[in-house]
Amino acid sequence: MIRFDNVGVRYGMGEEVLKDLSFAIEPGSFQFLTGPSGAGKTSLLRLLFLSLKPTRGLINIFGEDTATLAARDLPALRRRIGIVFQDFRLLDHLTLYENVALPLRVRGKEEAGYRRDVIDLLKWVGLTERIDAFPSVLSGGEQQRVAVARALIDQPELLLADEPTGNLDPTLARRLLRLFIELNRNGTSVVIATHDLNLMDQYDARRLVLNEGRLQVYE
Question: Which residues does the chain have with pLDDT short of 70?
Answer without folding.
Answer: none
